[in-house]
Fold each of these.
Amino acid sequence: MREYQVLALELAPVLRQAPPFIAQVHRLLGIVEVYSRDDLKAGALEFIPMERILKNALELEKASTASLGHQDYVVKALLAWFKNDFFQWVNKPECLLCHNTDQAKITSLGATKSSEEEHRRAQATTTEIYKCQQCHSTYRYPRNNDPLVVLEQHNGRCGEWCNGFMALLHAMEIPARYIWNAEDHVWCEYYSASQKRWIHLDSCENAFDEPLLYARGWGKKMSFVFAVSETLIVDVSAKYIDPEHQIPKQSKCDVRLLGKCVRMFNAGKWLAYNAKLTDLFLDYEEARLDEFYTKVLRPHYEEVAQLKGPSVATKTEELKPRETGAGEWTELRGESGK
Ligand SMILES: [Zn+2]
């Protein structure tokens, strides 16, 4: 048994007694593993109109005066295509029988546990039920989790948007991580080679490097924001929440205990990643350490320093209210910028 497997076993009883919020954070750890599967990357690539994305990226690059690299323009072009021409936001989904999309003629009947078939097909765990007032049929909308199924359907809410976009970034070998907010929103980030930092991306909003969009733009109050990659889980709250919109962290859990647990989670993730690198480089110890240092440790410590610095969450750019989601729905969530 390898070290990280031993650690996982030791962690299990601790987690069984951990407060619910810490258990919830722990469940995030495995969420990104799926994206590094080769079959998934190959499948996801099929959805990208590559020629068009690269052409648009070149045009953006020519027109821009910013000091970004080519990779950054590729991400911008991918993001714009994803939002404007590919993915669709769903409030109440289209009737499967008569294709009615009139929101006033569709009634939500709540949600239920997904059927075995729905779970087998796309790892759905929750299925929403709707009644069409036009043809009187009742139909199901499983909240699918399999990234390829999500790309195939190319619609959903922030979960599906983030899931689909993460799959595309990974397919293009752009380092990406999953960003989870405790107040029910998800988005992602990619690691910019030119900027040498993680850059905020929200595919629902076509938002690029606007980390204060939620707090200042939507007026969203938040407690925690975590970033999850293959190698790390990091508390990036300081990047996304300004003091005015910070829900006290202590109201969610014992912050010191959480910090301790996150360090344990990361030890497990690093051991697992090192085991993978050891398999990759066999006995080239130097190559393994170099890879680990340049890809994981150095960016991590740079980020930790940035997160502690005074410049985080103080920018004052123009931020817009939420674009996706029906008005009533965003107001309920306190995100309309009002
Ligand atoms: Zn219908």
Amino acid sequence: MIVAAVLFVYAVLLCTLAPRLLRGARWAERAPRLGIAVWQALGASALTAAVLTGLALTVPTVRVSADLAQLLEACVMALTAQYASAGGAAAGAAGAVLALAVLGRTAWCAGTTLLRIRRQRSEHREVLALVGRPDATRGVVVLDHEEPVAYCLPGRHRRTVITTGALDTLDDDQLEAVLAHEHAHQAERHDAVLTWARTLARAFPRVPLFRTAEAEIARLVEMRADDVAAARSGRLTTAAALLAVAGGRTPAAALAAGGSTAAQRVRRLIEPHRPLGSLRIAAGSLTAAAVLALPLLVVGGPAAAATQLNYCPDGTPAAQVTTMR
Ligand SMILES: [Zn+2]
């Protein structure tokens, strides 16, 4: 029961406190990739802790043994001991419901989100095939429209799309910056990162962590793509290019160069660039890894300890059973 309680409290603290402490953090803007990794680690850790809370309530810890018969016997004894009492059976049932509900809800939302995005991109590609003009030199599809817009449709049949309005507005350096921004989205699979964040936010809309993580990750992938573009074309050129396409609309399931965070990103590009030092990035990466591993360590500790126990030494199996709870 202690393990389940620790995991539950950990998940609740992570889901409520982490978004308050980390929302809009300046260090993440100085190292967007690290920021994305930290938000992903927080989400995955909370999800793992919730599932393991359920499992810890449901399945007692048994001594690991190379002898399959001995292991099965220990399992049966542990389960019998737990489910012999009404309280143990109720806790086990509640744990199973919790674990299955979290896993089932996540899988359902992941499936529906992926199918919806796939359908939207497929429909959009069909429209592009009808009205777009391939520009082999630039590797883009050009749309005849006066609104300056640039975006990419990620995935297996990826497309980078730019309107004639954007081509008329941007000079060569700015166009290079916009294309570098879109290529960064595709090369670093920002679509997959965003899809996972959206899945969790849709699956558990009342959980502050997942809502905040979705918004923060959406903001940080744009900053990361800006940094790639700025490394190629310069920060001021990228900022000017961003301003030129900032007002453009973003089609569903696409990643644009503009968007709702454009003003904040332009300000960031204009301000003096102060990337996070390698030591602080290493420390942040280690922290993210620790957050990710913590739920497994909480469960793994008692399970490892249980392997040291000698089951049934005096023929009283129920007395020797320990549980993960
Ligand atoms: Zn973008």
